[in-house]
Amino acid sequence: MRLSFHPRRVRKALRALLSPTIDRGIFSRHYRKITTVILQAALSCAIIEKRTESADAPREVKVKLKTVYICSECGNHSPKWMGKCPGCGAWNSFVEDVIGEESKSDPAKSPRRALTARTGEHKAIPYKEMEMPSYIRTATGLGELDRVLGGGLVLGSVVLLAGEPGIGKSTLLMQISDILGSHRKVLYVSGEESDGQLKLRAERLGVAGDNLSILTETNIERILGEIDRVSPDVVIVDSIQTIYSDNISSTPGAVTQVRETALAFINKAKTDNISVILVGHVNKEGTIAGPKVLEHMVDAVLYFEGERQQTYRIIRAIKNRYGSTNEIGVFEMTDEGLAEVANPSEMLLAGRPQNTPGNCAVCTMEGTRPLIAEIQALVSATAFPAPRRTSNGIDYNRLCLILAVLEKRLGLRFSVNDVYLNVIGGMHLDEPASDVAVAMALISSLTDRAVPDELIAIGELGLSGECRSVSGLEYRVKEAARLGFGKAIVPYRNLEKRQIKADIELIPIKSIFEVLKYLAAPEKLQG
Description:
The chain is an alpha/beta fold. The protein has four domains: 7-56; 59-104, no CATH class; 127-342, P-loop containing nucleotide triphosphate hydrolases (Rossmann fold), CATH 3.40.50.300; 348-525, Ribosomal Protein S5, domain 2, CATH 3.30.230. The protein is 33% helix and 23% strand. It has helices spanning 7-18, 24-29, 31-56, 114-120, 143-149, 169-180, 195-204, 220-230, 255-272, 293-297, 344-349, 396-410, 435-447, 473-482, 492-497, 512-520, and strands at 66-71, 77-78, 94-99, 137-138, 153-154, 158-163, 186-190, 212-216, 234-238, 275-281, 300-305, 312-320, 328-334, 337-340, 359-366, 369-381, 389-392, 417-423, 455-457, 460-461, 467-468, 487-491, 505-509. Helix 12 (396-410) crosses helix 13. The longest helix has 26 residues, at 31-56. It is elongated, with a radius of gyration of 35 Å.
């Protein structure tokens, strides 16, 4: 017999039972139906009461696991893999991820709720009532790194350090830990090396280990617990791709894991005023592995780059909320670790050939630092239907533009020659002030006439062949004079606006035509 609950029938039956004038005959004939309805009503009330009690008590939350695809550039979700992201238009950016929970979990303890919990504890403060801490920056002890950071690590900031495998990220951070340990408490968290491996590398680098604690752990909950116990001033995590949370079902290194564990570190840094350095791996395209939103979450993004076959390393800031993004730091890899290069211009010019066609020096500005770099060009007859164009250190499109200007304005035949361009030392010249030096190196190689060793070229080329002014010319020529250069080709318009005093002969030019004339007869443009 199927029982159904009808409230109207229950009310009618109850009124009949409570009525003093109840007809006993009717009651006896419908006794079974009346008791069945009353029993059903009582049972329904009991179920409702039990559900109410269970709703108030903690219960297990079980969510089915679901596979989704997340765009590593913008974080867009898709139930299936897509070649092109409809959100940001990036190609081949979707990576597989698993969302959901396998077991019970307290949502308040998940990294996703960490930032929300932090912001809920604070109230708006008038600007004039805000207090500045006793120290806002902590110098790392490495002048080249402090230059890039803008003076040191900011209190409560999160810095993301990225670089190719084997470039020296862990070595740099171990040296920073040792130097900071002399006056700050440092916690070094490693998810890639064991205690013995870290000890071996630290002894090779001569680490003293004062105020330095080592933790080999990959679980974010246990790491945060150790941070609470140790109370460090600086936390170094190597690397963020190895950290995972028990509350997230995906594997370490997945998009969700990287995003949520990084959010937990950011929350901890802002809450406890701890400076955090996160190490990030790069993928085969040279970008940071994981979601693109990771770079937006942190306060600074540093790239540690260089050729592994060479000993020099360059660190530059791609993003910095507390400093400039134009500064670079130069290091040299030695047996004792990374050593600072205080004068990178001399390093870049070391071993420069004398009186060789295709070579020209240029002074570029990296933030407030002038750097002398050597540009080499090789122009040779092609054996292919389409001549080759290879550029290393100079933007390829910039090279094509300069070649087009030289061929159109000067009538030089680069279209039947292969062109190879290289910047010595692994430098990347992004500013247009190197255009004249590139043009002189190309012309020198094509005409087989060497650029004088004492000459340096500075200036930007326009499409009509004119030489345009550049910024910071005074700093550039002073750096060139300090390194022994005797002459500098500079834009004429810079000298029109301001007279520059330097221990170097300045040769102003208005167009690229004068460069060709100078190479053909150097004595014509002296003075």
